[in-house]
Amino acid sequence: MRDILAALDRWYAARLPFGLATVVEVSRSAPRGPGAAMAVGPDGEVVGSVSGGCVEGAVFELAQEAAESGTARLETFGYSDEDAFAVGLTCGGEITVLVRQVTWARDPAFGAVAASVAAGEPVTVATVVDGPAPRGATLAVWSRTAAGGLGTRGLDAAVAADARGELALGATGLRHYGPHGERREDTVTVFVQSFAPPPRMLVFGAIDHAAAVARIGDFLGYRVTVCDARPVFATPRRFPEGVEVVVDWPHRYLRGTPTDARTVICVLTHDPKFDVPVLREALRRPAAYIGAMGSRRTHDDRLRRLAESGLSDAELARLRSPIGLDLGARTPQEVAVSVAAEIVALRWGGTGAPLSRTSGAIHPREAD
């Protein structure tokens, strides 16, 4: 969608209806992933692709029909090899495509979504795919606001809350609810598409604990980088596939790396010559979480060194140290769980207390 948004915004600004086909689900070796899109605009102009060519002709006809009729459709295309003239995927996979009409009246938030994507501002768009809610209805969700609607206030509230969670991770996929947002039901299927890159997790210190933290960070949806100045430790084979490993001085690498309000920084070097310079850099830049490993004695010494380096009390207060929640963790894997728990709790305002000892809603309802 991001690749074709400029053309879609041009049609939308001119108040010209168009048909939009979006891949909402894939299986096996499908050619393109969820979120891939193709649109048919005025005079049959086509932008984008949902399959790399396999079923584009059929999807073109569906999108053109949707642009004219306003009726949303859900179609699945699977493997087709026996008949050379059949419409299907030759790769052996399967894709499910939602095709709907986009107009100024039907999608009043589309322009704002396009502007946010162009500006690099994270936004999530939730679209009803199936169920008793109106198919093709959309809800655009930003960090603090939302626009549009999926049919009921309860469904809007539940999807908006979940969409903000997906937005924090840049995730895209299908979610299931009851008609009024009940999370234990699956009568309504909603496609949640986040227009934001995954947040970054920067792990400094290529020790055994770093491998465990990197693994759980990858599991939570972060784009993980491990950095250490010691090449004997900073080797890709020691870390999960997909984790970037960098050999550099931590503070120098961080100085040249952009961070934002979603970035997580974990300093596990446990050595003043590494962790004090990188923390001095980290505590003066945007980040959602900055944690450092060490004993309480190490923490006190580190705070003293950081204060002597010129950091203010407000800057030092951002440091989560010793890192993690008190779970009684011993192994690197258990420590990684405690670190991940603290990151999640800080993101959503959780207390870290056992739910069996708390009262009220487990997931606080967001304001309408």
Automatic annotation (TrEMBL):
Occurrences of domain XdhC Rossmann (ranges): 201-343
TM annotation in the entry: none
InterPro entries reported in the protein's UniProt record: MoCofactor_Util/Proc, XdhC_CoxI, XdhC_Rossmann_dom
Stretches assigned to the XdhC- CoxI domain: 11-78, 117-178
Pfam families in the cross-refs: XdhC_C (PF13478), XdhC_CoxI (PF02625)
PANTHER family: ALDEHYDE OXIDOREDUCTASE MOLYBDENUM COFACTOR ASSEMBLY PROTEIN (PTHR30388), MOLYBDENUM COFACTOR INSERTION CHAPERONE PAOD (PTHR30388:SF4)
Protein name, entry field: Xanthine dehydrogenase accessory factor
Species annotation: Streptomyces rubradiris
Taxonomic path: Bacteria, Bacillati, Actinomycetota, Actinomycetes, Kitasatosporales
